[in-house]
Design a protein that fits this description.
Layout lengths: L5 E3 L2 E3 L3 E3 L8 H10 L4 E2 L19 H11 L6 E5 L4 H13 L4 E5 L3 H4 L8 H14 L3 E5 L8 H11 L3 E5 L8 E2 L4 E3 L7 H7 L6 E5 L5 H9 L2 E6 L1 H6 L2 H16 L13 E3 L1
Parallel strand pairs: 3-12, 4-5, 5-6, 6-7, 7-8, 8-11, 10-13, 11-12
Antiparallel strand pairs: 1-2, 9-10
The structure holds flavin mononucleotide.
């Protein structure tokens, strides 16, 4: 839908709504179903070089499986976001390069998972993060995204500044809004004093328009997406709702977001990104 289209990391997307890496995005059939039923970008499940049988949340068939699917979908104009994990810098770089050569438009480094954190320790220091992400940046053409852990040992500002310097275009952040948050969509106003509302909001505030923020977590409907956009997200990723509802969840959330935007007289979702105001 036109109202929900946006540019993310310089890539034009038909919708700000996409699946989160993992649910419904590991097997060829699942990916093709998502691709057929949703006009926006499709995110692959995280993959490593050879595939994994464990841990359960990272079971995957290995990078060649995903590269083959990307080679089929890319010529059809589908925007693919491919997610990368690995146990070493070398493995992460190799997997990212393989996916880049297969035509994916955005490469998402999944640095949020314990599997990566406990081996590569990307957030041990800013220098450590720079060494890993800088290497990947130097070797791939695609726009680069980094999924950061919800509990980040480093300051958002220092991570954001590094990403800007390295030309990382996108940071995927936790949409960890307070459960009792009250937002009036008509005015874009959150109840209470001015404060940082979520990791998405924290990164948006230090992004200076040079880093696009994607929200993941708790996006189950158009209203969740609308509020994530108000707090700074340029796109949203849907996990649990996909598991519960199947591939139709993405289109439903896109339509609900479109309706809310129309009700508020917005011609484009870009008009609301980061526009949250505070009352109280
Ligand atoms: C079954 C399952 C598998 C997942 N696999 C991955 C994965 O491979 N890579 C990744 O970055 N996140 C993975 N995640 C995390 C999701 O991408 C997302 O961050 C999380 O589910 C929060 O979003 P939600 O509240 O919409 O579910 C997985 C989540 C679930 C439930």
């Amino acid at each position: 839908m036109e109202r929900t289209s946006i540019r993310l990391g310089g890539v034009a997307l038909n919708s700000t709504v996409m699946n989160a890496s993992g649910p419904h995005s590991a097997e060829k059939g699942e990916i093709y179903e998502l691709s057929a039923r949703h006009a926006g970008a499709i995110v692959f499940k995280s993959c490593n070089r050879a595939g994994l049988a464990a841990p359960d949340n990272l079971k995957n068939r290995g990078v060649d499986h995903f590269a083959t699917i990307a080679r089929e979908l890319d010529p059809r104009g589908k925007i693919i976001v491919a997610s990368v994990v690995g146990l070493s810098d070398n493995e992460i770089v190799e997997v990212a390069v393989t996916l880049d050569r297969a035509g994916v438009k955005i490469i998402e480094l999944n640095l949020a998972d314990d599997y990566v954190q406990n081996s590569v320790a990307p957030f041990a220091s800013v220098d450590r993060l720079k060494a890993l992400v800088g290497r990947v940046r130097g070797e791939v053409q695609a726009a680069l995204a980094v999924k950061v852990p919800p509990r980040l040992a480093l300051e958002p500002r220092s991570v954001a500044d590094l990403f800007k310097m390295l030309r990382v275009a996108i940071v995927v952040c936790a949409n960890d809004l307070p459960k009792d948050l009250v937002v009036d969509l008509a005015t874009g106003t959150a109840q209470g004093a001015r404060r940082t509302l979520s990791q998405v909001h924290a990164f948006y505030q230090v992004s200076e328009g040079l880093l696009d923020v994607v929200a993941v977590g708790g996006i189950n409907g158009g209203r969740d997406a609308y509020i994530a956009h108000l707090t700074g997200a340029r796109a949203v990723q849907v996990g649990s709702a996909l598991i519960k509802e199947g591939a139709g969840a993405l289109g439903r959330i896109d339509r609900e977001l479109d309706t809310l935007l129309a009700e508020q007289g917005k011609a484009s979702v870009g008009e609301i990104v980061g526009r949250v105001a505070f009352a109280g």
